[in-house]
Amino acid sequence: MIIDVVSIFPEYLAPLDLSLIGKARRDGLIDLRVHDLREFAHDRHRSVDDTPYGGGAGMVMKPQPWAEALDHLVASAPDERRPRLVVPGPGGVPFTQALARELAQEPWLAFACGRYEGIDERVYEHAEHDLGLEVSVISLGDYVLNGGEVAVLAMVEAVARLVPGVIGNAESLVEESHEDGLLEYPVYTKPASWESAPGVTREVPPVLLSGDHGAIAAWRHQQRLERTAARRPDLLHASQAVRGTAGAAGT
Ligand code: ADE
Known about the structure:
Helix content is 32%, strand content 18%. It is of the alpha/beta class. The strands form 3 sheets. A 5-stranded parallel sheet has the order 2-1-6-5-7. A two-stranded antiparallel ribbon has the order 3-4. The protein has a two-stranded antiparallel ribbon with strand order 8-9. The protein is elongated, with a radius of gyration of 23 Å. The structure holds adenine. Residues 88-90, 139-141, 143-145, 148, 151 line the site of adenine.
């Protein structure tokens, strides 16, 4: 998979050299290229923003550097291939595991990191209508970040780990939170009995030491239901709506 990221702070993307994503890059599974938007700004100050038409607070990202950056990405393909353009922003569709799975199917993603009050709307029109790109504005959640870079770190990590070969043990992807609409069960490791404070001993739930795989699976499923009901009741309601059942959480 090819991933291009365009930003005025390319250094922000440095963590994508680390850990599993860094290894996937070194293994050739992900070709991640980070571009400095200012390379495409040609005035003396290499400026990328200006005041908004119609007034209002803050600055807007100018169309010309963005258009040149996107033209450059499209021209970098040896053939007619086009990236899917992802623009992170609080006004986008919610980023979910389902959307991460969808993006992981794409052979080529380009992320455009906006800053300030956003990118001039005509850049989206240029991308869609002049360059023929599919454009997706995607939000991490209902809060405002200073720019798209942190969102790109999160999205690239969520997407890249779904690319075949990036995670060694593909089974570990199956039982995760959000893969089937429920949160994950609690996990424990050794020691079975742990003194967390003087005179306080905390035990691993006995069922996990029982060797009874059926009982363990049932306990874990119950834990997932209880956790989801406590922390994310909206997920339970959504999955019940999908299944057409209005029953209690345990059914
Ligand atoms: N940029 C600013 N806020 C954002 C958010 N909530 N999600 C994605 N990108 C953003």
